[in-house]
Amino acid sequence: MAQTGAYLEPLCRGRLVTSLILAADPKAFGGSLTRFRTEHPRAATAAGVGLITVGVTILVPPVLVSALNLAGFSETKIVGGSIAAAIWQPLYNGAVTVGSLFSMAQAAAAGGVAVPSVPVQAAGVGATGLGSWLVLGRSRQAAEIASPEKMIE
User: Fold this and answer.
1) In sequence order, which residues have a C-beta less than 8 Å from that of residue 135 and are 6 or more positions away?
2) What is the pLDDT of residues 99-118, one digit of tens each?
3) What is the superkingdom listed in this entry's lineage (predicted)?
């Protein structure tokens, strides 16, 4: 036990423990993010745009597959009575050519699009939310500073 304490002692003096405490305390963590956004507006905006880009990239495939499923494209066939079936018969006359938009939609719904796992999707939602907060919070803060009420004070 004493040896474990000896290994942890340098970490306690360093910034790692401080970082872990900030991560464990939402108020402290949120305060440090707010301070970062205020003190470094360009870096915060760049980080926010990057997080939004990553989050959207993660979230597009499951949304696309869900939309295709709702339209009537399933893993094995076109669902009868669906929007896809209504398009398939008159436009393609029951035969779909390789490389057509219809065949690409069917392939994507049948598993041709890699859908990330639920934890990865949750991370995508978190990244998009945090990125939006960094970007929109900055613009909201700028709007408050430029508001006529603030200028009168």
Assistant:
1) 44, 45, 48, 49, 52
2) 888 888 888 888 877 778 88
3) Eukaryota
